[in-house]
Amino acid sequence: MGEMTQDEARRQAHYEKMTQTPVPKLVTTLAIPTIISMMVSAIYNMADTFFVSQLGTSAVGAVGIVFSLMAIIQAIGFTLGMGSGTIVSLHLGAKEEEKATCAASTGFFSAIVLGLALTVFGSLFVEPLMQVLGATETILPYARDYGQYILLAAPIMCASFVMNNIFRCEGKSVLGMLGIGTGGILNIILDPIFIFGLGLGTAGAAIATALSQTVSFIILLVLFLKGKSDVRLRITKVSKQLKTYVDIVTTGMPTLCRQGLASLASVALNVNAAMYGDAAVAAMSIVGRLMFFMFSAMLGFGQGFQPVAGFNYGAKKYDRVHEATRFTILVGTVVMAIFSLIIFIFAPQILRAFRRDDAQVIALGAYALRAQCLVMPFCGITTTANMALQSTGQSGRATFLALCRQGVFFLPLILILPRFTGVLGVQLAQPLADVCTLLASIPFLMAFLRRLKVMQ
After folding, report:
1. pLDDT of residue 310
2. 407-411: which pairs have CB atoms within 8 A and are 24 or more residues apart?
3. Number of C-alpha atoms within 13 angstroms, CB side, residue 260?
4. Which ranges does the record mark as transmembrane (predicted)?
5. Is 243 exposed, middle or buried (0-12, 13-18, 19+ CB in 10 A)?
6. What pLDDT does 50 receive?
7. Which structural domain, as residue segments, surrounds residue 86?
8. What pLDDT score was predicted for residue 4?
9. In total, how many domains does the chain have?
10. Of 383, 372, 363, which is closest to residue 340 (Cα–Cα)?
């Protein structure tokens, strides 16, 4: 046989790294960049909320409304990104580079098309859309101004999520961090300039987000064009077979359920909170952003775990998948417990930083935040279980678990509890749903670990 080309040598080195590096070191190394990028994203989400909150209670309520819209955009991007990325990871683990390139190209260009469709239809019906998402009459003007610019950025946001997920699933999370992280930092800088400096209000926050997402897209695309990925994005490689699209959507279905239901749950939360006034909507909006910030650490760590699980599962190194799963659960639970304790103690002070002059927002938000902190450590188990099943191609079981948190448990609770307990039901619906999700996840996780033991 002849000597390996430079590309083949690079791929072989990457293969050895993913299948031979000690698991704790590999997961941690891959997780750090994803944690940073997730935390930066969460911080700029909080920055949006913080700066907009200076405009009034109705304005900060609009952030919660548009968060539901962004969850729809994320649902499209992450579904195609995780679906194609997981398939890429499995093919690379099996050294099937051509199939990996086909999956990546199909996911990327599909994201652009679906993002454009959302832009067109959402822009045509922006005001009714904001009302459906839970905007009250006083919140609607702010939500409309915010939402119209986010809709314009939908195609590049969807495509960016796909590229970021492909990098992660290849085990190159640092490259994904460069794109997403840079955009997030830029957003934080631009927010006060556009909101206050240029006097654009909530529209300024949306424009800052759209511009920052565009910068992220450009950085990630340049990295692909320069060959930093093991796959290429070629329109000529987009699959003409329906099965490829079905495989991508099926593999990404847990993410679609998770993200799609997050949007639906956010709408249900906004609608039920609106029954108790703008203060309740604003309080739950702030709590939602704070919990996303805390959860992003676990999500980032889990995203470092996924390529390790997927790659080694494809390479039939089941002992490494087993070790990675247990390690991620342990570290995730400990980290989330520490975060939860700190935020529980300082909950009122944290809410006061957002709406210092609104005692009702502070009181409602602090109670909901503390209730959520009591159960947040459980997400170390539930998140890892879901990601382990998804990254090893067990989409059916992963989809069911993804349905649990925001769908099977949260939606009935948010619809029923407030009828009997008033605003307390709005505050406690998510924590109770998280407890139920833990109980549902444990049997699936134990069965997965036992199966890995048998396959070793």
Report:
1. 84
2. 407/257, 407/261, 407/264, 407/265, 408/436, 408/440, 409/433, 409/436, 409/437, 410/261, 410/265, 410/268, 411/261, 411/264, 411/265, 411/268
3. 14
4. 26-47, 59-81, 102-126, 146-167, 174-197, 203-225, 261-286, 292-315, 327-347, 367-388, 400-420, 432-449
5. exposed
6. 79
7. 23-455
8. 59
9. 1
10. 372
The DSSP secondary-structure symbol of 456 reads -
CB 410 within 8 A of CB 265: yes
Specify if 6 maps to a domain: no
Give 344: exposed, middle or buried? Use CB within 10 Å, 0-12, 13-18, 19+.
Answer: middle
> Can you tell me the distance from the alpha carbon of 335 to that of 28, in angstroms, rounded to the nearest whole number?
13
pLDDT value of residue 384? 94
Q: How far is CA 379 from CA 35, 255, 277, 291, in A?
A: 15, 16, 31, 12
Specify whether the CB–CB gap between 191 and 111 falls below 8 A.
Answer: no
Paired tokens of 406: 């925001």
Give the sign of the dihedral formed by CA 335, CA 15, CA 391, CA 42. positive
The DSSP 8-state label assigned to residue 271 in this structure reads: H
Residue 265 is predicted with a pLDDT of 80
Say if 97 falls within a structural domain: yes
Q: Is 84 exposed, middle or buried (0-12, 13-18, 19+ CB in 10 A)?
A: buried
Three-state DSSP class for residue 181: helix
Residue 17 domain-assigned (yes or no): no
Q: Which residues of 444-453 are buried (b: 16+ CB within 10 A; e: fewer)?
A: bbeebbeebe
Query: Residues in the chain with pLDDT < 50?
Result: 1-2
Provide the pLDDT for residue 304.
Answer: 85
Q: 187-208 burial, b if ≥16 CB within 10 A, otherwise e?
A: bbebbbebbeeeebbbbbbbbb
User: What pLDDT is recorded for position 1?
Assistant: 43
Judged on CB neighbours under 10 Å (0-12, 13-18, 19+), 17 is middle
> CA 310 to CA 169: how far, in whole Å?
8
In a domain, 72, yes or no: yes
Q: How large is the C-alpha radius of gyration of the chain?
A: 21
Torsion of CA 241, 245, 250, 254, to 10 degrees: 170
Length of the chain in residues, anyone? 456
Tell me the two tokens of residue 230: 């093991």
Phi, psi (degrees; rounded to nearest 5) at 94: -95, 5
Structure tokens of 410? 């949260």
CB atoms within 10 A of CB 368: 29
Nearest-angstrom CA–CA distance, 379 and 332: 8
Asked if residues 396 and 386 have their Cβ atoms less than 8 Å apart, the reply is no
Q: How far apart are CA 119 and CA 126, in angstroms?
A: 10
